[in-house]
Design goal:
By secondary structure, this protein is an alpha+beta fold. It has 14 helices and 40 strands.
Length: 780
């Protein structure tokens, strides 16, 4: 809901409210963002507004007749340069008059139903009947005929408000944009902690908390993508906030390129937050009559801690970001060929794996890298799309038909944005690659980046990928991007300062042209794992590969970090072989599944070498997941507080029933640990609930030499007899069941003892290092 009354602007969602007002000098003064107020009016706004009753030394007054009107000590919706505000400005523009001073003041506003579509960029979707409305506030610079429109869109049910800016030059002379953010917001400091999600390849999105100090903290990517080093999304937590309580703010960006987010605490305890395009190597010339639109920024508030904030983000992504054709649709259980085979496969090997995958309950077979050109390793073939005839003598379409005949859907890996120098494409068109004249190019994974600013390159990708998709009838695409952008140069843009942004605009155009006519294809974005995990890609790609690291213990941090901003329905998560290729860690197959099922489940292990007992366990896993995938993918996800530092606890609640699933994960085992507790808030205090562990297996090899002490004869733990037995038999892990009221679960249900080093029976929980259990909670 958007209302405007006598210069007071109110944006209300189901549970939150955002208020700003017009000042006497035409600026927009921020008043309040937080929980929805009961019938607010002008008196509430005045009570909530920052007071200016004393003149502050060393400040610059905006107006000579109003010494208390100092922009540097006000909470603003937007601010420029040269008018006395010394905080980081959302805009740095060389104006048509040659100067950098900007002073945008109110000119008018419009309120419309629904979301306002963008000209060049993807954005969230929402119709008027879905509780979506937009406010456009038109500002104009006081000296130059340059307009700035601030666009706010309210998504009531999701408790989300988006913001973006559109700049128009109506002067005869051009202007140059050096920085133009999507959002700028000022609030009084409430003891904020800044939370970012950082890492690198194979360790993406780890949560980091920092008390907000004086100065500016920047969360930025300069790699050409939204990046694995710093996800665009970040949080501000008021003092005392936790997972389940306290006031929390969240910010994110619908964009897949270089981003820039910041939080600044100034000398008068005001906090400015901003997010938008990175100014790194950015320079955009705007001629007469031209406009520039920023990506859409997303903000949300919760008084219920970070879990409440996550629920807002999750609803927003699932309802308003994901492509409509895939909104609320189940994601298939897939099998991916990469980790089992890399490049070394034949059609016969692949078909053997496909038939085994079908028997184990999988629904989609994904052929990963290596199917095209001379692709025997990562030094050749990228850029070519003809099937490798040594691997596929009768072509890729024939192989796809064989996969479907085996009862599986067919999916295919591409890396369309890259090229190897050893490829037919590069030999024919070396000018398609990003190379700066006079400089030797830098390489990553033996590849160069294709110039998506070049129209012929975009046409080539669209035609080539589209042809393969149509020939094979693929229903799934994994779209990869396996290196950062180094040099930034294109002969097909007005200025090299436009390269990074025009590259992303080119990418979005390619994605629209390929998948717009083929909405039935499930696109999973990937960029060396989670190097482009962002809302921009989610506008095209209903799910994203979270990380190349499939070790479930690292995935607890990666998926847990991403879950603050993105729902499980968009996270690709696979069960792989152990020891894991990225960490050499040995983990139980039960834990690999228990972590992966809180996402879009897939398998990426060599099925040919599974033992019979492992095959049975995987069959049970896929059957269980498919029976409950609606809850795992679309349920209400929460990170529960763990009583101990070596535990992680996740919960997914079914929105339509009294059922929930709880993952209890142990990292390193303690010695003779005390009791473990399951604390589950939010249940009906008086209702009875059954808590039951999903049955899983314990493998003989895990007990090592201990088996000697329980057998009448001594056998070599690594010998033939026990190895043969371990292939076909496994112990049932303790699958305890408890019944109690919701109040007891909220207080903390105590579980049975873990293995203490000196005793075992069928009621002893045998977790050890990296063990876990999956509990089903049902109301009775």
């Amino acid at each position: 809901m958007v209302t405007v009354n006598d210069g007071l602007f109110r944006l209300a969602t189901d549970s939150t409210e955002y208020i700003f007002r017009l000042t006497k000098h035409g600026h927009l003064e921020h008043i309040y963002y937080g929980a929805r107020l009961a019938g607010p009016d002008g008196r509430d706004a005045e009570a909530l507004a920052l007071k200016r009753t004393a003149q502050i030394g060393c400040t610059v007054a905006y107006d000579r007749d109003d010494p208390l009107y100092v922009l540097d000590t006000m909470c603003l919706e937007w601010s420029g340069i040269g008018r006395g505000d010394y905080r980081l400005s959302p805009a740095e523009i060389k104006m048509p008059d040659g100067g950098f001073v900007t002073d945008f003041v109110y000119e008018g506003h419009d309120v419309t139903g629904g979301a306002m579509p963008m000209e060049t960029l993807p954005a969230a979707r929402g119709a008027e009947g879905e509780g979506t409305a937009s406010l456009s506030v038109r500002l104009r610079d006081k000296a130059c005929d340059v307009g700035l429109t601030l666009i706010y869109t309210v998504y009531e049910a999701a408790d989300v408000i988006t913001r973006r800016a559109v700049l128009v030059n109506r002067e005869a002379e051009p202007l140059v944009i050096r920085r133009l953010l999507s959002l700028s917001l000022d609030m009084p400091d409430m003891g904020y902690t800044l939370v970012t999600f950082d890492g690198d390849w194979a360790k993406e999105a780890h949560r980091h908390d920092r008390p907000l100090q004086y100065g500016v903290f920047v969360n930025e990517s300069r790699t050409g993508a939204s990046g694995n080093k710093h996800n665009p999304g970040f949080l501000l937590l008021e003092d005392g906030a936790s997972e389940d309580r306290g006031r929390v703010y969240g910010f994110n960006l619908v964009y897949s390129g270089n981003h820039f987010g910041f939080a600044e605490r100034n000398s008068h305890e005001l906090v400015r937050v901003g997010i938008g395009l990175s100014p790194h190597c950015f320079e955009w010339t705007l001629g007469t009559g031209e406009t520039f639109e920023t990506p859409e920024a997303v903000m949300t508030f919760s008084g219920g801690g970070t879990n409440g904030l996550s629920r807002n983000f999750h609803r927003f992504v699932n309802r308003h970001v994901i492509p409509e054709a895939w909104r609320d649709r189940d994601r298939p259980v897939l099998y991916n060929s990469w980790e089992p085979l890399f490049f070394k496969y034949t059609q016969r090997k692949l078909m053997r794996l496909a038939r085994m995958a079908k028997k184990l309950g999988m629904e989609l077979f994904v052929l990963d890298d290596g199917w095209f050109g001379k692709r025997g390793d990562d030094t050749a073939g990228l850029g070519d799309y003809a099937a490798n005839r040594r691997k596929f003598p009768r072509g890729l379409a024939h192989f796809a038909r064989k996969v479907r005949a085996a009862g599986l859907e067919f999916g295919l890996w591409f890396e369309p944005e890259m090229v190897n120098e050893d490829s037919d494409l590069y030999r024919a068109h070396p000018e398609y690659a990003v190379r700066q004249p006079g400089r030797e190019p830098v390489r990553g994974r033996n590849q160069l980046v294709l110039d998506l600013c070049h129209p012929a390159v975009r046409d080539y990708i669209v035609d080539s990928v589209g042809r393969v998709l149509d020939e094979t009838g693929a229903s799934y695409v994994k779209w990869d991007m396996n290196r950062h952008i180094g040099e930034l140069w294109s002969e097909h843009i007005p200025s090299q300062g436009e390269f990074f942004h025009r590259y992303i605009l080119g990418l979005y155009e390619v994605l629209r042209r390929i998948f717009g006519p083929r909405p039935h294809i499930l696109l999973e974005s990937c960029a060396s794992g989670g190097n482009r995990f962002d809302l921009g890609m989610l506008c095209f790609s209903p799910q994203i590969w979270a990380s190349d690291n499939t070790d479930p213990i690292v995935r607890l941090e990666i998926q847990g970090g991403l879950s603050h901003l993105y729902p499980p329905s968009v996270m690709g998560a696979h069960v792989s072989d152990a020891p894991h290729q990225q960490t050499l860690r040995e983990t139980p197959i039960s834990t690999r599944f228990n972590a992966a099922c809180f996402g879009c489940l897939g398998y990426e292990l060599d099925l040919r070498f599974l033992t019979p007992v492992e095959r049975r366990e995987i069959q049970e896993q896929t059957a269980f997941y498919k029976a409950h995938r609606r809850t795992f993918q679309y349920g209400s996800f929460e990170r529960l507080a763990a009583v101990k530092a070596n535990k992680r606890v996740w919960l997914c609640r079914d929105p339509d029933t009294d059922r929930a699933f709880l993952g209890f994960f142990q990292t390193m085992a303690g010695v003779s640990e005390g009791p473990d507790a399951l604390r589950v808030p939010g249940l009906d205090a008086e209702r009875l609930y059954r808590v039951s562990a999903r049955p899983q297996k314990l493998y003989i090899k895990r007990f090592g030499g201990l088996v000697k002490h329980i057998m009448p004869v001594t056998l070599d733990p690594g010998g033939l007899i026990l190895r043969a037995a371990g292939r076909r038999y496994a112990l049932n892990d303790c699958a305890e069941t408890r019944t109690c009221r919701g109040a007891a679960l909220a207080a903390g249900l105590l579980l049975g003892n873990q293995f203490m080093g000196s005793h075992y029976n069928d009621k002893t929980r045998l977790l050890g290092d990296y063990g876990s259990n999956l509990y089903q909670i049902e109301g009775l």
